[in-house]
Design goal:
- It holds the Pfam family Fibrinogen_C.
- This is Fibrinogen C-terminal domain-containing protein.
- Keywords: Secreted.
- The protein is α+β, with helices and mostly antiparallel strands.
- Helix content is 57%, strand content 13%.
- It has three helices and five strands.
- The strands form two sheets. The protein has a three-stranded antiparallel sheet, with no helix packed on it.
- A hairpin with a 5-residue loop joins strand 2 and strand 3.
- Helix 1 packs antiparallel against helix 2.
C-alpha cells in the first residue's frame, strides 16, 4: 500500500471477512545494538534515582516504599533479560550470515549443474546424429545389395552346367548344410528340403553373420 521507510514497505492484507491487516516488511536484519544501549542507560538512570531517593533523610510512605522495592527488584531482572536478548540477536545475526554463505554455495552448485546439463545435451545430440548417420549408411548398403542378390537369383545357370551342391556330393537341405560341407563362396546352390525332395535352386549368403543364409 506504500512505502513505510527507506528500506521497508507497508503491506495491507484484505481478509475474507472484509477486515484488514497491516504488516510492516523490512528485509534487513535489524541492528538492535543501539536499542540495547539505550535500555541499559535508562536502567542505570532509574537505579541511580532509586539510590538517591533511598538516601534522602525523609522516610517514604509505606506504599511508596513498596513501589521502590518492586522497582529495585525488577530492574536487575530486566537487565538480565536484555542481555539474553542481546545474545540471541547476535546468534541470529551469525546464523543469518551462515545462511547467506550456504545460499551462495547452492547458487554456485546450481550453475555447475546447469553447465553439466547443457554439456550432456550437446553430447546426446552428437550421439543421436552419429547413430542416425550409421543407420543411413546401413540403409544405403542394404538398398545397394538388394539388386545384386536379385540378379544372382534370377541369373540362370550356364548351359551344360549344374548348380553347385555340397562338396562331399551329399544332398544339402539348406544353405547351412552347403556351408558345413565346405562351400564358402556366395552363389546359387541346389538344395533339397525335406518337404521338397525334388529340390530347387537358391542364392546362399556365406559371409553375413557366419554364413549359411
Amino acid at each position: 500500500t506504500g512505502p513505510a521507510g527507506a528500506n521497508s514497505a507497508l503491506v495491507t492484507v484484505d481478509r475474507a471477512d472484509s477486515s484488514r491487516l497491516s504488516i510492516l516488511i523490512d528485509p534487513r536484519c535489524p541492528d538492535l545494538a543501539d536499542g540495547f544501549a539505550r535500555l541499559e542507560g535508562a536502567q542505570a538512570s532509574v537505579l541511580q534515582a532509586l539510590s538517591q531517593r533511598q538516601a534522602e533523610p525523609r522516610l517514604p510512605g509505606e506504599q511508596e516504599q513498596e513501589l521502590l522495592d518492586t522497582l529495585a527488584d525488577q530492574l536487575p531482572r530486566l537487565l538480565a533479560r536484555a542481555s539474553e536478548l542481546q545474545a540471541e540477536c547476535a546468534g541470529l545475526r551469525k546464523g543469518h550470515g551462515a545462511l547467506g554463505q550456504e545460499l551462495s554455495a547452492l547458487q554456485s552448485e546450481q550453475g555447475r549443474l546447469i553447465q553439466l546439463l547443457s554439456e550432456s545435451q550437446g553430447h546426446m545430440a552428437h550421439l543421436v546424429n552419429s547413430v542416425s548417420d550409421v543407420l543411413d549408411a546401413l540403409q544405403r548398403d542394404r538398398a545397394l545389395g538388394r539388386p545384386h542378390v536379385k540378379a544372382d537369383l534370377q541369373r540362370a545357370p550356364a548351359r551344360g552346367s549344374r548348380p553347385r551342391g555340397c562338396a562331399n556330393g551329399s544332398r544339402p537341405r539348406d544353405c547351412l548344410d552347403v556351408l558345413l560341407s565346405g562351400q564358402q563362396e556366395d552363389g546359387v546352390y541346389s538344395v533339397f528340403p525335406t518337404h521338397d525332395p525334388a529340390g530347387f535352386q537358391v542364392y546362399c549368403d556365406m559371409r553375413t553373420d557366419g554364413g549359411g543364409w
